[in-house]
Amino acid sequence: MPFMELPRVDASELSYKQFLLEFALPGQPCIMYNCRMKSPAANAWDPQALLLRKVGVWRTDLAKKKRFTKLHHDTSAHTLRAVDPLQRSSSVQPPAETHACGLPPQDVDLSHEVSLTVGSLAGDAAAPPERQSTVGESLQLLADRLASPTQRTGPPVYLAAWDYVRGGSQALKEDFTVPTFFERSPAWLANHVVLGNAATDMQWLYLGEEGSGSATHVDTNASSAWLWVARGRKRWRCLHARDCEAVQALGECTADGEGLVLPDLFSDDVLERLPAGMCVYVGEQHAGEVCFNP
Fold it and tell me: Strand, coil or helix: what is 44?
């Protein structure tokens, strides 16, 4: 099975016309650098800073509540095709002197319910069910594990697909700017309910420990997507858009018949079974870079 490096493109030298002709229309994934994004989120999205942006309490069990205080974490966003267990460099940050590097407090809803993946790949239909949690509980868990090596035992923890806009934390959108290639959707399209209400329901943040990741998947509504890594790094294996149906044909139904498990592109056995002529793209995305996956 041949591998090809994901094309790396200097976004500062790429015109919108070139992007359409070379990547969007032919369905060619790529990694972009020099995207000229305003990105205070690189610091503002440390879990400690995120917690400080909403002072309050959240329920930890039936008997007690816990106040939002310290946190540390290496964070990165993440969606799209097939992703191997992420490899991220963890770092412990001192408490910010101002709320999230001067950004406005009181704009993160820590009570919003999310799914927490522990020890399996997010979106894996054959894995144990994801654990239901809240944003605040998930951030605190990640922070405690990263702050103390003695607590960082067992499988990696992954807060996957935090729907921050739908979940009342839409102010986080002010922490970054959308690359020019992806900011042209008209309002009627971005807010179209039949097409997924992308402006509200198709925007996610992902935070995970080293070793976390996502199972092979096709994005919501078979859409194209872009992903920016705020911190750490992310390894990719993905396919050209033209090979999507061929990979889905290799999927296996779950025991209940309601899910489809797509082949793991990081498995050598699976790679040997892929149809002739199919190419797997590989690449590593670093902090500040954007991956486009059509």
Answer: helix
Which among 232, 229, 272, 235 has a CA at the least distance from the CA of 250?
272
Q: Counting runs of H as helices and runs of E as strands, what totals does the chain give? A: 8, 16
Secondary structure element (H or E) that encloses residue 271, with its range: helix 268-273
* Tens digits of residue pLDDT in 217-250: 888 777 888 999 988 899 998 888 788 888 888 8
What single DSSP character describes residue 286? E
> What value does the CA radius of gyration of the chain take, rounded to a whole number of Å?
19
The Cα 273–Cα 263 span in angstroms is 9
- Predicted confidence band at 65 (pLDDT cuts at 50, 70, 90)? very low
- pLDDT tens digits along 7-57: 999 999 999 999 999 999 998 999 999 988 776 666 667 777 777 766 443
Q: Which helix (H) or strand (E) holds 29?
A: none
Q: In whole angstroms, what is the distance from residue 135 CA to residue 163 CA?
A: 10
How do the residues of the chain divide into helix, strand and coil, expressed in percent and rounded to 5? 25, 20, 55
Looking at residue 62, the DSSP 8-state letter turns out to be S
